[in-house]
Design brief:
The protein is of the alpha/beta class and 759 residues long. It has a 7-stranded mixed beta sheet with strand order 4-3-17-16-15-5-6, with helices on both faces. A 6-stranded mixed beta sheet has the order 1-11-8-7-13-14.
Length: 759
């Protein structure tokens, strides 16, 4: 099978499995518009608040459909799905009154979400099979007591990018004032390798490309991303780039139909009738081999004389060691590692060398590996060697999956607190902060499994569902004494992540309902406003996250050295953010100026980086050892069984946002339900299996039965299943640098019975 496609648009198939968007998007908008919630949905879409979905930053000051440049028509169907879910009625009282935890644990992700909105605080006490109502006063008393009686080292938080900058800042301030650095975050499970790798090279861990700069590029390398499903707004930019004669190189073991052709509502006549070509060139490497791919591109540039040596020598350090690695690494070792030929890599490198300005973009297909940080550094090295960073239209751009996950990192919700912010917080709190290393998300689960965590505060998210090895995650959370979940809707973690003594399920306003103004940060470093709103829920007893955290802090610390009660006013919180968060000086006076802003020190329009000496710091990136276990690793095959080993990629489906599933099927991949495995047709033939046969998939941590085999456009030797269902299969193998799990390379054994025709 050819693993590289030089895409000829005239020869692209026109069936829906080989394109994305188009009429299905229009019909989706139509169904939403004419539904019972249609009027409220459109009011919310036009509300001046940032999108609830990915981190592309629509909404805010310019209104619901506009991006940071003020361009209209920039909402996507992911926004509709997220908002429609938030506009559900309250969970019927009978759900928690009559359904036991055992019954609730039988619900899948979609069923949990469809229960509705949480509208009053609940508690599950040890020995009780049901959640029951509780007052907010008792909630604060219980949680304050849990925080006071726990030592700082045994106190932890977990958070998601659903919340605001103000809530994130309060969370980390509360935790650090209590002496704990255990600020686990959903970014630990997705883009932490991007933050760490980019900081090592450029001194800043976010995108160094603004939306305006992206529109000046004539080349994009898109790696490990299914943007049509997860970041549809980005597709508008890729369409524009192709229309101005640019090149899009896609690197992904799976051929995603929407990356071949995509129809966007932003271009209604041209794109929806015919769809727009996206990929100019499509490479299908072995999962986990991205470092080898980029070493191959670098070696090709070196040998062809295409490296921008004047730029490299003027604006980077460490290039000598990297050059030595390239000269000493054989083409054979590179091609064996990544599964692409020398000719393919040289051709790709030559195509990119003809571009004037290239943006290197990636998602979790790069970071979800045990060498994820190395992958990111290899991409950053490539940007420097080709001279594609530190100028308009060029740079590195991690594509964040949650709308304010980057803002949480900026606010200090991280185990890697930057020194300038540490010093500013110490001045604010008038004390030294703890230097005890904190738990990231995987460390938190491991520590809890050892019985080393007493209290856990979860600000959004689904810690149970987002972790590998679901059996361990359930057991670990069950060993924590007290867990408090702040959420808008139920998820599986609220029913499986039950604490040993008491579990609090606490309803909060969502972003467009919160009764005060808040802010978030887009993936391109743009700070956006969320204007106040109101909830559609009748007689709901909700709290704002800012108000809740400020009240908890007041009960813990009183009025010293900060007036903690006053922090219920987000304006005061923003004053503190401006004083203590690097790059957020623009937050000062923002309530008077009403001016959204770009975080300073991150977008490099000139090659002066945020490292101590202003130069990019290059270093060699070793090739990974991608060893696959054999059948015996899984205990061998029983009599009457046949089987083979695959490298499994776990991914979100088209109708899914993080762990929340909106639609069971993924029609773009041809997967009709969640209990499916996408597999290369040649693998089926080689190992004597049949399309749509049901098999057992055995991983190193667990197994799943009655999984349907779906033939599809995926590299040989690989399979794809849906996250979070497939989490039960995998051990917590992680990037040792930052703890991000290897969700995109999971060894599994496919077990099937010997067919009657083979007997």
């Amino acid at each position: 099978m050819a693993q590289t496609m030089d895409v000829d648009p005239s020869k692209l198939p026109l069936d829906d499995s080989k394109r994305g968007g188009g009429w299905s998007v229009i019909t989706g908008w139509g169904r939403a518009t004419f539904s019972r919630k249609g009027k409220r949905l459109w009011q919310t879409l036009n509300h001046k608040s940032a999108c609830l979905s990915c981190a592309w930053g629509t909404g805010g000051q310019n209104g619901g459909f506009r991006d940071e440049l003020g361009e209209p028509f920039q909402r996507c169907i992911k926004s509709v799905e997220a908002i429609r879910a938030e506009l559900q009625p309250a969970v019927p009282r009978s759900v928690f009154n009559r359904r036991s935890l055992v019954e609730l644990q039988q619900l899948n992700s979609a069923s949990c979400d469809r229960l509705g909105r949480l509208d009053h605080p609940l508690i599950q006490r040890a020995g009780h099979d049901f959640y029951e109502p509780i007052s907010w006063d008792e909630v604060h008393d219980l949680l304050a007591d849990a925080f006071k009686t726990s030592t700082p080292e045994r106190l932890a938080s977990y958070s998601s990018g659903r919340s605001s900058n103000e809530a994130a800042y309060l969370l980390q301030l509360l935790m650090r004032a209590r002496g704990s650095n255990n600020l686990a975050d959903c970014s630990d499970l997705c883009h932490a390798p991007s933050s760490v790798g980019l900081t090592r090279v450029f001194g800043s861990g976010t995108s160094n490309v603004s939306l305006e700069s992206l529109r000046q590029a004539d080349g994009v390398v898109l790696v490990g991303s299914n943007a049509p499903a997860n970041h549809p707004r980005l597709m508008n930019e890729l369409i524009r780039l192709r229309e101005r004669g640019g090149t899009v190189v896609v690197i992904n073991p799976v051929i995603e139909g929407g990356l071949l052709k995509f129809g966007s509502p932003a271009f209604p006549i041209r794109s929806l009738l015919l769809s727009s070509e996206i990929a100019s060139l499509y490479l299908q490497p072995i999962p986990g081999s991205d470092t080898a791919v980029f070493l191959g591109l670098q070696k090709a540039w070196l040998e062809s004389g295409a490296i921008a040596w004047e730029f490299v020598k003027s604006h980077s350090d460490g290039w000598e060691a990297l050059q030595k690695q390239l000269m000493g690494t054989s083409w054979e070792s590179i091609t064996q590692c990544c599964g692409l030929s020398r000719e393919e890599l040289e051709y790709t490198a030559a195509r990119l060398a003809t571009c004037r300005a290239v943006v290197f973009a990636w998602a979790m297909g790069i970071t979800h590996h045990s060498n994820g940080t190395t992958n990111v550094q290899a991409i950053a090295n490539s940007a420097v060697l080709s001279g594609n960073v530190g100028r308009p239209g060029a740079g590195t751009m991690p594509i964040r999956g949650h709308s304010n996950v980057q803002g949480f990192g900026s606010m200090g919700v991280s185990v890697r607190l930057r020194e300038p912010m540490r010093l500013a917080l110490e001045a604010l709190l008038q004390r030294s902060l703890s230097r005890t290393p904190g738990f990231h998300a995987r460390d938190l689960i491991e520590a809890a499994d050892r019985g080393e965590v007493d209290a856990l505060l979860c600000l959004g998210g689904n810690l149970f569902g987002a972790n590998p090895d679901s059996t361990q995650a359930r057991r670990a959370l069950g060993r924590i004494d007290t867990i408090a979940y702040l959420a808008t809707k139920p998820n599986q973690g609220h029913f499986h992540g039950i604490a040993a003594r008491q579990t609090l399920l606490l309803p909060v306003f969502n972003r467009f309902e919160t009764p005060h103004r808040t802010t978030v940060e887009s993936g391109n470093n743009w700070v956006r406003f969320n204007e106040p709103g109101s909830t559609h829920l009748k007689r709901a007893n909700l709290t704002s996250e800012v108000g809740f955290l400020a009240e908890l802090a007041h009960r813990l610390f009183g009025d010293e050295p900060i007036h903690w009660k006053r922090l219920q006013d987000p304006i005061y919180v923003r004053e503190l953010i401006a004083k203590t968060v690097p790059g957020y000086e623009g937050m000062a006076g923002i309530d008077v100026s009403n001016r959204e802003f770009e975080v300073s020190g991150r977008v490099f329009s000139v090659p002066r980086f945020s490292t101590p000496n202003g130069r990019a710091q290059l270093s060699p990136t070793p090739l990974p050892e991608l060893l696959a276990p054999d059948v015996d690793h899984f205990g061998g095959l029983a009599d009457g069984e046949r089987g083979f080993v695959l490298n499994l990629i776990t991914a979100r489906s088209h109708g899914q946002h993080n762990t929340v599933v909106y639609k069971e099927a993924d029609r773009y991949r041809g997967m009709p339900h969640r209990q499916t495995l996408l597999i290369n047709p040649e693998d089926l033939q080689t190992f004597g299996f049949e399309a749509h046969e049901q098999v057992t998939v055995q991983g190193e941590a667990g197994s799943l039965e009655q999984i349907e085999l779906i033939p599809g456009s995926i590299r040989q030797g690989c399979g794809l299943m849906f996250f979070p269902e497939a989490n039960v299969l995998m051990r917590g193998v992680s990037d040792q640098t930052c703890g991000t799990p290897a969700f995109k390379r999971v060894p599994v054994l496919i077990r099937g019975k010997v067919l009657a025709s083979m007997s």
